[in-house]
């Protein structure tokens, strides 16, 4: 990956709606050369996917919560089983198996507290492998960046 690839990636992360011609102009390439580079980066898996990032409140999911989960039973199979169940929930936007005292960290995007309570019943309270869970409701977002600086 060279300097031009990095510039393409940084530009695309901030606005992937640019046309190939606009992107090529911004990095000083011909449109065909730029397109070949983008296709190569996609094929190599550097570009995982291109998505639209929605405004959570305008999409009806203004409540954000972080939940840490401690499992009773440990091991790959138990972790995988819980993560699969959590990932099936539409309110779960991010799910991580982590090291330390906590086993799982979930990021939730919710409509309201009623949705949160119902989700708790399904994956925390009714789940026989959850020892405990702790919830932090976000009251202020200081930074919410999706770009990875290249």
Draw up the topology in text.
Layout: H1 3-14, H2 20-27, H3 31-43, E1 63-71, H4 76-87, E2 92-97, E3 104-110, H5 113-125, E4 130-137
Antiparallel strand pairs: 1-3, 1-4, 2-3
Helix pairs in contact: 1-2, 2-3
Structural summary, described in words:
The protein has 150 residues and is an alpha+beta fold. It has two domains: 3-43, Winged helix-like DNA-binding domain superfamily/Winged helix DNA-binding domain (Arc Repressor Mutant, subunit A); 63-137, 2-Layer Sandwich (Alpha-Beta Plaits). The protein contains five helices and four strands, in the order αααβαββαβ. It has helices at residues 3-14, 20-27, 31-43, 76-87, 113-125; strands at 63-71, 92-97, 104-110, 130-137. Strands 2-3-1-4 form a four-stranded antiparallel beta sheet, covered by helices on one side. Strand 2 and strand 3 form a beta hairpin. The mean pLDDT is 95.
β-strand percent reads 15-25%
Mean pLDDT: 95
User: Number of helix segments?
Assistant: 5
Provide the helix percentage. 25-40%
Question: C-alpha Rg, in Å?
Answer: 20 Å
Using the alpha-carbon principal axes, give the shape.
elongated
Report the strand count. 4
CATH superfamily assignment of the largest domain? Lrp/AsnC effector binding domain/regulation of amino acid metabolism (RAM) domain
Strand order in space, largest sheet: 2-3-1-4
Question: Can you write the helix and strand succession as a string?
Answer: HHHEHEEHE
Described by strand count, sense and barrel closure, the largest sheet is:
4 strands, antiparallel
CATH architecture of the largest domain: 2-Layer Sandwich
Structural class call reads alpha+beta
Oligomer: single chain
Amino-to-carboxy terminus distance: 10 Å
Number of domains: 2
CATH topology of the largest domain: Alpha-Beta Plaits
Low-confidence runs (pLDDT<50, min 5 residues)? none
CATH class of the largest domain: Alpha Beta
């Amino acid at each position: 990956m060279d300097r031009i690839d990095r510039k393409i990636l940084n530009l695309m992360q901030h606005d992937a709606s640019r046309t190939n011609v606009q992107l090529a102009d911004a990095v000083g390439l011909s449109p065909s050369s730029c397109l070949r580079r983008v296709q190569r980066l996609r094929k190599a898996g550097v570009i995982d996917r291109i998505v639209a990032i929605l405004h959570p409140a305008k999409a009806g999911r203004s409540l954000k919560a972080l939940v840490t989960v401690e499992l009773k039973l440990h091991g790959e199979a138990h972790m995988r089983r819980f993560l699969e169940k959590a990932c099936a929930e539409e309110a779960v936007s991010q799910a991580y198996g982590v090291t330390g005292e906590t086993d799982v960290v979930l990021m939730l995007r919710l409509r309201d507290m009623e949705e949160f309570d119902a989700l708790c019943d399904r994956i925390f309270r009714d789940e026989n492998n959850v020892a405990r869970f702790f919830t932090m409701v976000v009251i202020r977002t200081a930074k919410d960046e999706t770009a990875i600086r290249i």
